[in-house]
Design a protein that fits this description.
It contains 10 helices and 10 strands. The chain has 289 residues and is an alpha/beta fold. The structure holds S-adenosylmethionine (SAM).
């Protein structure tokens, strides 16, 4: 079942969190000259036109990237500022007060930030989106294959330096079990890589019954005893809210050391701008472990 289309959600609050962290990690890893392999296991369509099609229907970016774009760039903490810079550079120059027309997905971000010596590989199973991805981002190697299964053949990379971005659509219940298995295998092959794994926080009447999604972060957390971070940003209805996504999180193995501090600095602002008055039952807008 491949009915998920990321265009509906482009630039929303979970995108802001995951893409802000992705940019931070890529920029940090580029401080070393040695070649970096960047794998995007679930690529989507690469980037999204916000003025037409699916993205224009839900307009989720209005509660995501838009509030950040309205802030004076120098007042933004580093993680948010880098994201705003990348998003602005991805759009034609114009009046900064005017809204953006395109939002870069993870493949466009990776393509923009990789250097000549680096390699970017992007997986996407949906036929239409993988065709778009291939056409739009020739800088990347695009493969219409299962991105999680493909990790086996790619890790460890010859340069021993890799960032693996894992951003599934969680359309099927099995995804919550297949994912940790694939990650465990990848860690067995290459435990020193930087892994970013995104997960949704779903309310009681979310896509699956309670319990289906809630064990995932704990399972992922327990897979690796080394340097790791877990960040969650609550941006929607509380845990007892009626339905849908009330936030999202990331598990990061081997994060660059300044990432924790950057998140501590950025989360209050992200929570204020993206959470609005809808707070989680926990009484605060984020969690960082
Ligand atoms: N990472 C993208 C971004 O940040 O812009 C968004 C990706 S979207 C959340 C997930 C994508 O994964 C969907 O386009 C879906 O078609 C694709 N997909 C689902 N299962 C997959 C798999 N096993 N391998 C590769 N792609 C898959």
């Amino acid at each position: 079942m491949l009915s998920y289309r990321h265009a509906f959600h482009a630039g929303n609050a979970p995108d802001v969190l995951k893409h802000g962290v992705l940019i931070f990690c890529l920029e940090y890893l580029k401080k070393k000259e040695k070649a970096l392999l960047c794998i995007d296991t679930h690529g989507g369509a690469g980037y999204y036109d916000l003025t037409e099609g699916y993205a224009a229907q839900n307009r989720e970016w209005e509660q995501g990237i838009t509030p950040l774009l309205k802030e004076a760039p120098l007042t933004l903490p580093p993680l948010a500022r880098s994201l705003v810079t990348v998003v602005r550079e991805f759009n034609p120059p114009g009046d900064p007060a005017a809204g953006i027309k395109r939002y870069p997905g993870s493949p466009a971000i990776i393509a923009a930030l990789l250097r000549e010596q680096d390699r970017g590989i992007c997986f996407e199973l949906h036929p239409a989106d993988s065709t778009l991805l291939q056409k739009r981002l020739p800088r990347l190697e695009v493969r219409r294959e299962d991105g999680l299964a493909a990790l086996k053949a790619l890790l460890p990379p010859p340069s021993r330096r890799a960032l693996v971005f894992i951003d599934p659509s969680y359309e099927m219940k099995d995804d919550y079990w297949i994912l940790p298995e694939a990650v465990k295998d990848a860690l067995g092959r290459f435990s020193s890589g930087c892994y970013l794994i995104w997960y949704p926080l779903l309310g009681r009447k979310g896509h699956f019954p309670p319990g289906e999604s809630t064990g995932l972060p704990e399972r992922l957390w327990s897979l690796y005893g080394g340097n790791r971070l877990r960040v969650e940003l609550y941006t929607g209805q509380g845990i007892s809210g009626t339905r849908g996504l009330y936030g999202s999180g990331l598990i990061i193995y081997n994060p660059p050391w300044p990432l924790k501090e950057a998140l501590e600095e950025s989360l209050p602002l992200l929570s204020r701008l993206l959470g609005g008055s809808k707070r989680s039952e926990k009484g605060y807008g984020w969690d960082l472990l």
